[in-house]
């Protein structure tokens, strides 16, 4: 691949929990350039500026051209390839965060149909992705500005969506749950506490989370706490016990076991590796 055709930025840190840009850029691909098969650990939207290409996921192949967009879901095997005769140029933005899945639920992207053809406001979406690229940098203010512009980009997809927004959907239950978790994760809250706050049974809450986020409320709560713990390990000198207490664990040994299960290393090892 010719480096002059590729302009990209990858964030070294993902500090914002709600929505954070992981990478962003634009590229005029070489003929027949292919990425994959492989998986990403974050969401990734490509908007096709010109040319043609194909996107293969879940056994289906989608042929795309200028004005189309496709979404890569985390931990899903994919292949995308530029056309040989008319290789595509695209802009992309990768992102993570607790708001990501719920925002995407309001767009026309789904796991069954991960492409949008002839995107409304396509020129504006391209412009906003390039604005995210212009805001790149590793300072906290850059992360905030990139996240703000990402919200604007996703709002354009929502504005042109054909989905009807209904009250008391699984999405709204999960949104309310996430808000509760964000405000109370440092306390020893349980799934029962979350269900009571939302006004659902535990089983109904479980089904809502599985529908929207493809994980259970307990898994989401644990992952949220681990993200906060990672931030404290990276950016503070608090003891492991103090960090455990700060993210809702009243037992530091259980916290360390949970952290090791999620991250493949102890909190102390994580801190040491990060500070090297």
How would you sum up this structure, described in words?
With 276 residues, the chain is an alpha+beta fold. Helices cover 44% and strands 21% of the residues. The chain has 10 helices and 10 strands. The strands form 2 sheets. It has a 6-stranded antiparallel beta sheet with strand order 1-2-9-4-7-10, with helices on one face. The mean pLDDT is 88.
Brief summary:
With 276 residues, this protein is α+β, with helices and mostly antiparallel strands.
Instruction: Return residue spans where pLDDT drops below 50 for at least 5 consecutive residues.
Output: none
**SS element count, helices:** 10
Q: Give me the oligomer status.
A: single chain
How are the strands of the biggest sheet laid out side by side?
1-2-9-4-7-10
Overall pLDDT, averaged? 88
- Computed structural class: alpha+beta
N-to-C SSE string, H for helix and E for strand: EEEEEEEEEHEHHHHHHHHH
What share of residues is helical? 40-55%
Distance between the termini: 32 Å
Question: Can you lay out the helices and strands and say which pair or pack?
Answer:
Elements: E1 6-10, E2 20-28, E3 34-38, E4 43-50, E5 52-57, E6 60-65, E7 69-72, E8 78-82, E9 89-96, H1 100-105, E10 115-116, H2 122-134, H3 140-159, H4 170-184, H5 191-198, H6 202-213, H7 217-235, H8 240-246, H9 252-263, H10 267-275
Antiparallel strand pairs: 1-2, 2-9, 3-8, 4-7, 4-9, 5-6, 5-8, 7-10
Helix pairs in contact: 2-3, 4-5, 4-6
């Amino acid at each position: 691949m010719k480096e002059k055709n590729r302009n990209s930025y990858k964030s070294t840190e993902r500090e914002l929990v709600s929505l954070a840009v992981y990478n962003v850029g634009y590229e005029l691909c070489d003929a027949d350039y292919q990425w994959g098969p492989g998986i990403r650990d974050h969401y990734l939207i490509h908007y096709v500026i010109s040319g043609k290409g194909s996107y293969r996921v879940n056994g289906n192949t989608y042929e795309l051209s200028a004005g189309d967009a496709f979404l890569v879901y985390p931990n899903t095997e994919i292949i995308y390839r530029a056309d040989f005769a008319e290789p595509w140029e695209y802009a992309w933005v990768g992102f993570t965060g607790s708001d990501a899945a719920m925002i995407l639920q309001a767009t026309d992207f789904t796991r069954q149909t991960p492409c949008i053809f002839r995107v409304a406001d396509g020129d504006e979406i391209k412009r906003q992705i390039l604005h995210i690229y212009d805001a790149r940098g590793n300072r906290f203010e850059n992360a905030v500005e990139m996240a703000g512009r990402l919200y604007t980009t996703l709002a354009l997809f929502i504005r042109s969506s054909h989905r009807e927004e209904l009250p008391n959907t699984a999405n709204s239950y999960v949104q309310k749950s996430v808000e509760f978790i964000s405000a109370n994760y440092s306390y020893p809250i349980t799934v029962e506490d979350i269900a009571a706050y939302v006004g659902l049974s535990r089983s109904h809450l479980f089904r809502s989370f599985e529908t929207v986020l493809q994980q259970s409320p307990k898994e989401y709560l644990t992952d949220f706490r681990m993200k906060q713990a990672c931030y404290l390990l990276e950016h503070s000198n608090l003891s492991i016990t103090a960090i455990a207490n700060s993210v809702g664990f009243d037992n530091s040994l259980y916290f360390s076991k949970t952290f090791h299960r999620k991250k493949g290393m102890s909190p102390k090892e994580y801190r040491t590796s990060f500070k090297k």
